[in-house]
Specification:
The protein contains 22 helices and seven strands. It starts with a helix and ends with a helix.
Length: 499
């Protein structure tokens, strides 16, 4: 990007900002709000840290670097000056150490461009009525939002932004074809994350599915750009996209009555509070959310009572754990060992996604026309009326369910440690469970060389041979090779006596 273009753009932004500046004043904390689309959501961790700092050191409200920029209409500005018995110059040419205090009519609000975390911390710490103020820099609102955006983001280089915030900004400025602003957000990523995101954005389907959630700002905290490559490598595109479109998007759209403007007001802390709650099913979850909703701590940016009542009615009827992008990435961790097992049924060089490869592998062998099989036990099935498409769909579903039940004995991965439980230890893959997996795939109508090999393997012989080696350490003992086969046959006959 040529420096001359950057210089021209920067001069324009500076001139626009300076021409709209009207001075500095002290205002009550209660008149400050953060409704601008440029403002970050609340971050409870930062707020708690600032509260501790303010209690210990006090609030340095007069330092210029701590001023909060606010936007105000020109007519409102003049009215407030009159109410405060001030003239316009008194806010710029102020000889006193403390800027003048402004007065506001009841219910009036100033829209802040940044400083949300410090203002929320100050509201919690400054209790005395005379102390509840902050210093603001006043700017007149106009139709050009670019300088306002730059003002909101000017100190962001010293601020840690989540991957979700960076992704949303890159997407926004890409749509607006604002290359300068987009570039400023790309540089916030490490080189590795930039590479991952570039590859991700070239994917045929994933970006559109993620971008459908772009208006629900609060759910983006869980995005981890650093693992996008691993997610794409799973070759589970259909499953992940279904989670995004049919799970996250549908549930959050339902909560807000399909109102996109309300979705934009879903703040980060509220999302964390409702995440994985099922208030329509769990009375505990319902009661956990009731008080914050009544006290306007849940979705505080939504103030209209009729809208809050609508949201509560819908929220309290949801019987599934409420998903977010964070829960998606957590569930993808569970998906990883499952897809490792499923891939063993397919050629190592299969093309496309796992689902497409399984569809190609379906032959319909062992399926009856006009019916599809439903598994009722590990080796029991019943038949239901259906089409070839049903045979394929339910066949694929049964393979995933088998992998879910037995993944810790199919691949060398184990479940996460449960609270107050001992740490699970990965187990050796079970040849018997792999044999049954191949047999299940065959019964359901799938056929590949890999399935055939699994089906033909003799798990009893493998288990028996492993038992012989386990009983006598090969470093100290050896078996007579001429007798091993006889031993294995005897052990297999014993296995066959099980009923």
């Amino acid at each position: 990007m040529r420096q001359s273009r950057v210089d021209t753009w920067e001069r324009k932004i500076t001139n626009d900002r300076n021409s709209n500046y009207r001075g500095t004043a002290c205002v009550d904390l209660e008149v400050l709000e953060f409704s601008s689309s440029f403002v970050r959501g609340e971050n409870e961790r930062i707020i708690e840290s600032l509260k501790g700092k303010f209690k210990k050191e006090g609030c340095y409200r007069l330092e210029p670097r701590n001023h909060v920029p606010v936007i105000i209409e020109l007519s409102d500005f003049l009215s407030i000056l009159e109410l405060s018995e001030l003239n316009p110059d008194s806010l710029i040419e102020n000889p006193r150490e403390t800027p003048p205090r402004l007065k506001f009519p009841p219910g009036f609000r100033l829209s802040c461009l940044h400083g949300r975390q410090r203002i929320e911390a100050a509201k919690a710490v400054l209790r005395k009525p005379g102390d509840r103020w902050w210093t603001v820099d006043l700017y007149i609102a106009d139709s050009d939002s670019i300088w306002q955006r730059e003002l909101a983001e000017e100190y962001a280089n010293s601020t840690n932004f989540s991957d979700g915030e960076i992704y949303r900004k890159i997407h926004q400025y890409s749509l607006e074809q604002d290359k300068f602003a987009e570039k400023k957000w790309w540089v916030r990523l490490t080189k590795k994350k930039s590479e991952f995101l570039m590859r991700f954005l070239k994917h045929k389907r994933f970006p559109a599915a993620f971008n459908a959630l772009i208006d629900i700002a609060g759910i983006w905290d869980g995005l981890n750009i650093g693992v996008l490559d691993k997610m794409m490598a799973l070759k589970c595109d259909e499953e992940i996209i279904h989670y995004l479109e049919e799970h996250i998007l549908q549930i959050w759209s339902y909560i807000f009555g399909d109102d996109q403007e309300l979705m934009k007001l879903a703040d980060r802390e509220s999302v964390k509070l409702v995440e994985l709650k099922a208030p329509g099913l769990s009375r505990g979850d319902l009661e956990l959310l009731r008080k914050p909703m009544r006290d306007e701590k849940l979705f505080p940016l939504i103030r209209a009572q009729d809208q809050r009542d609508m949201i509560w009615t819908r929220l309290s009827s949801i019987g599934d754990p409420i998903p977010t992008i964070h829960t998606l990435f957590e569930d993808v961790k569970y998906l990883r060992p499952l897809q490792r097992a499923i891939r063993k049924l397919l050629p190592s060089d299969f093309k496309g996604t796992i689902r497409k490869a399984l569809r190609r592998a379906f032959t319909g062998t062992h399926q009856e026309e006009g019916e599809f099989k439903v598994q009722t036990g590990e080796q029991k099935f019943t038949s239901c009326t259906g089409s070839v498409e049903d045979q394929i769909w339910y066949g694929i579903l049964h393979l995933w369910l088998y992998a879910m039940r037995h993944f810790d004995r199919l691949v060398e991965e184990c479940p996460k440690k449960e609270e107050k439980q001992t740490l699970p230890v990965p187990q050796k893959p079970s040849s018997l469970l792999w044999h049954r997996f191949g047999h299940l795939a065959d019964v359901l109508g799938f056929a590949t060389k890999e399935i055939r090999i699994l089906k033909q393997k003799n798990p009893d012989a493998e288990v028996a041979y492993a038992a012989l080696l386990e009983a006598r350490d090969s470093d100290y003992f050896t078996y007579d090779e001429s007798l091993v086969l006889r031993h294995l046959r005897r052990m297999k006959r014993m296995f066959d006596t099980a009923t």
